[in-house]
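Run folding on both entries below.
>entry_1
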Amino acid sequence: MVSPKTTHPSTDMSLPDVYPRRTRPAIRPLDVPPLRGPQVRQLTEAQRVFEAAFPPIRASDSDSLVLNWDEIERQYLDLVAPWDLQNAMFRIREARRMAALESPEKTFRWLLVLAQSCPGLDAEEPPSGTGKYLPMP
């Protein structure tokens, strides 16, 4: 029997050929407050600075990757630790709202930062009161 995660034979014949699909809790609607005037001005200025540092690169249509926000959100939320799901939902939906004022490249950069900063599936929940995990208000 070959292990599903490696190409090496498994030493435990009782292991299944395929790992079962993880079940995830249903995601309830989460309202992200609308952007206010000062936030819009700050994002617009940040976008201007970003574009000055990273001018747009001309690309052919064949180089484009097309994803919609529902797909991005689904994949992001599937990768976070279950105990951090509420926080992750807020962060990704806030990024979605801010993306209306940013270039695709800057939005992608922010998504990379979010992915790097979220606790992964295997992360243990820190004990409360340690200061290692502060929930979003």
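>entry_2
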Amino acid sequence: MTTIHRSRVIDSMIATVANSLLRESGINSPTKNETEEVRRLAETIIQETVDTLAGPLDDLAYSTLTDVTDLVASDPETASIDQIREVAIALRGLLELREALTEVGQR
């Protein structure tokens, strides 16, 4: 079995979405099956949200974006306009995700 490693931030987002789904559906004392089903739904929602904002995460794209981000951060004078734009778009997606999750948490 393959182990999936996620950050605490992603786990926190999934928990927040799951709790919101339970609260909005009026389920106060979910069964184990309901909890698992809501958790799976929350994982899907977060995955689709991240994919929509940042694009699907494949190893090459992630590695490339990481390299470009490192270049822009460490030596911005040598980064091209397109590289700076790429990092800015990725950052904007993360900020929009944070804003959306904050809004969900306030409901």
